[in-house]
Amino acid sequence: MTHAAGPPRPAAAIGRTRAISRFILKRIGLALLTLWLLSVLIFLGGHLLPGNVGRAMLGPFADQQAVDVLNHQMGTDRPLLVQYGDWVAGFLTGDLGDSYAYRAPVADFLGPALLNSAKLAAVAFVLVVPLGILGGVVAALYRGRPTDRILSVVGLSATVVPEFVSGILLILLFGVTLRWFPISATWDEGAGVLTQLYHLILPAIPLVLILFGYIARMTRAGMIEALEADYTRTAILKGQTYARVIWRHVLRNALLPTISVIATQTVYLIGGLVVIEILFHYQGIGSLIYTAAKKKDFPMLQAGVMSIGALFAVTTLLADLLYARLNPRIRFGDRE
Amino acid sequence: MKDDLRRLLRQPAFDIGLVIVLFWVACAIFGPWLVPHDPYADDLINTLMPPSAEHWFGTDQLGRDVFSRVIVGARDILTVAPLATLISTILGTALGLTMGYFGGWVDEVLGRIVDAVLALPTVIVALLALTALGTSMITVMVVIAFSFAPIIARTVRSAVLAERSLDYVAAAELRRESTFYILFVEILPNVLPPILVETTVRLGYAIFTVATLSFIGFGIQPPSPDWGLSISSNYGMIGGGFWWTVVFDSLAIASLVIGINLVADGIEGLRHD
Lengths: 336, 273
Prior knowledge:
The complex is a heterodimer of chains A (336) and B (273).
Chain A: H1 11-47, H2 53-58, H3 64-74, H4 80-92, H5 106-141, H6 146-160, H7 163-177, H8 193-228, H9 230-237, H10 242-279, H11 285-294, H12 298-326, H13 328-331
Helix pairs in contact in A: 1-4, 1-12, 5-6, 5-8, 5-10, 5-11, 6-8, 7-8, 7-10, 8-10, 9-10, 10-11, 10-12, 11-12
Chain B: H1 2-9, H2 12-34, H3 66-72, H4 74-102, H5 104-118, H6 122-133, H7 137-164, H8 167-174, H9 179-187, H10 192-215, H11 227-234, H12 244-272
Helix pairs in contact in B: 2-4, 2-12, 4-5, 4-7, 4-10, 5-7, 6-7, 7-10, 8-9, 10-11, 10-12, 11-12
């Protein structure tokens, strides 16, 4: 015990610290377990299914000897378990293997692609989080009235339309007809932040549309629950102003579930990036995975998919921790 | 039941959704006999013609009639997506019943695998599987079925957990009924409503996914007049102003997914009232 020298801490505080560390450890353990399972699934997906990698690369008419040599060079003739160990070890040390298609390290492509996608995702999030929360709050405050109904139908509709469909319609309207925005997301080399931002706004909107409905819905549900809670009534009865009650009591509690939703939605966001990046000719992780799939470049494909899985595991973990930090029920160890 | 239906039909959003879905189902079934032109016939003299009295939605780069293609284009997606949803519902229900009924380590192990699958976007899972297995309608269906099954399993599992401790289950166990009987004859009928809602919602996502996969070339294959596929082969030209080659297909997809989700939302709302 590190605090042995200090004054004795009350038992409750120690229990609380223990509850928190147990919660954190459990979450980290779960994240690692998910990652491990994912790595097995992805590895099997990439290695068992195509059968002979050398044959797949050289085609059905290649000489058997050439196929064997290639398999040996790439190490794909070794037992699967050895290859899996190698792949995971490489992943942990930052060696992601070589791309079949470009004969160059996968990592060289993965880094810049992730950075580009992160920029696009950031623009989408910066736009959608305040909009979604605002939508949910307004819907909850006007619960059951036309404003609420309209917001709910619009949010639902925006959420279910595939990104490439809204993307096409946006390109036609704002890119081709009105000419407000460029129809390609790729900027000239050395372009400044503002130019990059300008290119990213149109591609970000389909992602914003998809996420808006989810965030608004969760916020609305959380708000309604908080509005009906006893503490809200107490606050109103205490004579606080309505705005202050909403801001200090309702919103704080209402936003908790929204945090988890935003985290889970990152996964769908990345799925959406594939389509958006193809549609807007943008070099991100989505188009990297897509190109790798088209070229049957399995090392690139696996590394790309695995990094998405890792990203998801980390985001979920962070969201859980943030949730625990903000939720007094977890913070004070009432419940795990 | 009749009462529920009447309440559903009184919601304008549900009605609009239902009309849209029924319209596209009718197009999928009867489309080929209704359209004014052959959706597959090239006409290389009249390529990329704007909408006119002869071609209401114009013609595409091979001179095919866009209107006819949009109508008949409902066919493949409305075959693949519902079948995929059906398979995933069957799989997911079986999985969810097993997880919820047995609990313990079965639930724990299956739950972990489900979480790992859910950690990846469906489109990415599909890309990985379709690259490895090769693209075909069957593969698309199987991939969607497998990625949606865990989500349905989760819903079924939590519904089963609520039923698990009820007396009728204990009674069946005392009668020494087989596990299969208890799961599918005793418990299943009682958890049908949440399964129905989840299935409708999944159908919307299945259409979303099939359309997306077709757009990126891993779904429905040419020469099908499928919407996603048509957009994929024409969107490169929209900079040139040939908007009619993509707009109608886009609106078709949008209307179908919105329609299905309005229906799903209506049914879901009914359960919460």
